[in-house]
Every structure is written in structure tokens, then in C-alpha cells.
Amino acid sequence: MRPRRIVSVVGTRPEAIKIAPIALEARRRPGLCHRLVATGQHPALFDDALAGFGIAADDRLHLAPPDAPRADRLAALEAGIAAHLHRLAPDLVLVQGDTDSARAAARAAVSLGLPIGHVEAGLRSGRPDRPWPEEPNRREIDGCAALLFAPTPGNAANLADVAGIVAVTGNTGIDALRIARPALPVPAPPIPGLRQLLVTCHRRENQGERLHGICAALRRIADRSDVRLTLPLHPNPAVGPVIAARLGDHPRIRLVAPLDHRAMLAAIRDADLILSDSGGIQEEAPAFGTPLLVLRAETERPEAVAAGHCRLIGNRPDRIVAEAGRLLDDPAAYAAMARPGLPFGAGDAAIKILDAIELWFGAAPGKHRQRRKPAMSPGESRPPAGA
Ligand SMILES: CC(=O)N[C@H]1[C@@H](OP(=O)(O)OP(=O)(O)OC[C@H]2O[C@@H](n3ccc(=O)[nH]c3=O)[C@H](O)[C@@H]2O)O[C@H](CO)[C@@H](O)[C@@H]1O
């Protein structure tokens, strides 16, 4: 029998990091032929992230002119991906997460009648519109996927009303961390009396006035003589230049270019405290036992908050300063958060995902099998034999 063809369509740095373990695992399986298609949503960060795993995109589509209005970008993405998928005629289209690339790829697959596998399915912020557009994107993709790979049992429980098959797999971001960990740089020796804070901030809901407020709070934190803040700047023009203009002159704030994935993981490992609005960092920080204050009012990753690794603090300046101060000044509060844990899986998500896909291929009656009723309950990790 010919190998089954899987095409992953991805466009941004976090998608590259989270699809890489699947691409690597697929290579080890003779029954599968995996192809990685880049949409061009974040070209530079995307290529660097993949290169860290020794892989590159098989096809590049350059479909998303960054300056075009979102509706035009989405239309261009969907049309271009559909034309490409039509040529490739895969047996399954994989999309990761909640970006516009993922949504456009899912729509393109639906338009061609191709089945979709959704990696990182079932994340919900509790608000249908926030974060925008990620929350509406992930809900739409979940609604049309044949296979839904939920990182946690809680994510699977959020999928009770979808038509596809749900498997609990862990998050491939933890696989990526497991793969990268042995090659991380040796930690620099700590400087006595100096606490290292790592900060990332790029989410849409933290831009504009709110970003000004967050910068003001970071300045106040940096005014303490016992801290040093490092901020890798996101290239988004609504973020990097604004932060640089407000914080670039502070002697205890170091603004740096985006870090490659390994350097970022090392920075997470070596930080005493992280402040961030990133999704992926909420998954990675617990693995290193580094406390994380999440600069958002809600999260689609409540597992890390429930386990005590992260704390949701929103974006009001006074609260940011107070919460950081509490962890810096209260050793008991700090120790309660500074414990390693793996609320998003043990780093074997790609294996589980590809096991489930191979079982599904084995069970699928036709190449373009359509959606079906769930054959699994939340918490199960595989479709039952013969499903
Ligand atoms: C809040 C939210 O909805 N976030 C979504 C967003 O990602 P997310 O908010 O995670 O996006 P980020 O740009 O923060 O990327 C995080 C990843 O990039 C790495 N990193 C970060 C900074 C840096 O300088 N260098 C670097 O390598 C981090 O270690 C992490 O692995 O898209 C992801 C992919 O669809 C989804 O999983 C997330 O749900």
C-alpha cells in the first residue's frame, strides 16, 4: 500500500515549533509521507524556528502580505492554500493551533472535502471573542476537524459537542522542549543579589494604551536595584518599537532581538520570574519550574494556573507591580510557584498523534473520509479498534 500523505499547513513561529516534533516523528514511520507547507505568515521567525530542529518547509506559498487588511489576507491565504492542497491531494491536512494560517488552511481543506486533523484542539478562553482572532479561529477549526488532538483532558472535555474523533495527546510544544533540552546552552552562573526577569508581550489585547501601561509597570519594577529585565522584542511594528521607545533607556532593562527557540528555552530556564502574555510560554515555564505571571485576564491554558505554576494577573500597571513585588519579596509565595511540572504532557504528543492518525487511516474506508460521530470519550487517547 502506498504511504498515506499528510500535509501540515503552518505559518508562524509557534506553529513551526509545535509541528516540528510531528514532522520528525512522521519521518520514522514508513507508512506515512509528511509534507510541510509554509504559508508565509511570519516568514523569518518561522524558518528560524524550524531550522532549530534541522528541518525546513517543503513548500513555501508567500500568501500573506503583512500590510493587507485581514479580510484580504485571509482570502488570499485560503485561495492559495486550496490551490496547493488540490495539487497535493493529501489523505489528511494537519493544522496547529489558532492562527489565521490554521483557519485558512482548515477552510481550504473543507472546500476540497479533505479531512482535517487539529493539533492543539479544545483550548477555550471562556470568552467566545477573546483572544481575538485566536478564540474564534480555534472554535471554527474544531468544528470542522475529523481528528482533534486535545493536549489535556480538560481540552477534550471542551470538545463534547464536536463531530470529529477526540484524542488526548499532550502538547507538542512539550515534545519540542524535550527535543531541544539536551542542546540548551549551559546556564550562566547566577549573580548574587540580582534576580533575572524575562518578559514577553505581543498579544493584540495588550497593544495600544495597554502596552503603554505595561511598559510603565515594567519601568517601576526595573527601578528596584535587585532585578534585571530581559525583553526579547516581537517584530510586530505595533509592539517592538513601542517597547523600545518606552524602555530602551533603562539601565536594568535589556531589549534583545527575538531569541531562537533554544535560547528562549534557556532564558525561561534561567529566569527567576517571567511576565508574559504568550500562550506557548505558559506551557514551557512550568516544565522548568519558573514562576510565570500571565499578563492576561483569561487563559485557554488553565491547567498551569490550577497547578500553581502560573498566575493570571491581567494588564493593569498597579497589579503587575504588586504581583511581581510579592514574588520577589515573599520567599514562601515564590517557592509555592517555583516547582517543575508537566500539566501539558510528558513530551510524547507527536507519537500519540501519529499513532491515532495511523489507526484512523487503517480504519478509514475511503481516502477522503468525512466527519463522523465521536468514537471516543474525553480522556481516551485512541480510536477504538475497528472504529
Ligand atoms: C495566546 C494565544 O492564543 N497564543 C497562540 C499563539 O501563540 P503564542 O502566544 O504562544 O506565540 P508566541 O509568539 O509567544 O510564541 C511562543 C513560542 O515561541 C517561542 N519564542 C518566543 C519568543 C522568542 O523570542 N523566541 C521564541 O522562540 C516560545 O518559547 C514559545 O515556544 O499561536 C500558537 C500557535 O497556533 C497557539 O498555540 C497559541 O494558543
UniProtKB/TrEMBL annotation:
GO terms for molecular function: UDP-N-acetylglucosamine 2-epimerase activity. Keywords: Isomerase. Its EC number is 5.1.3.14. The keyword Isomerase applies. It catalyses: UDP-N-acetyl-alpha-D-glucosamine = UDP-N-acetyl-alpha-D-mannosamine. Residues 368-387 are annotated as: Disordered. Residues 26-358 form the UDP-N-acetylglucosamine 2-epimerase domain. Pfam families: Epimerase_2 (PF02350). Belongs to the UDP-N-acetylglucosamine 2-epimerase family. PANTHER family: UDP-N-ACETYLGLUCOSAMINE 2-EPIMERASE. This is UDP-N-acetylglucosamine 2-epimerase (non-hydrolyzing).
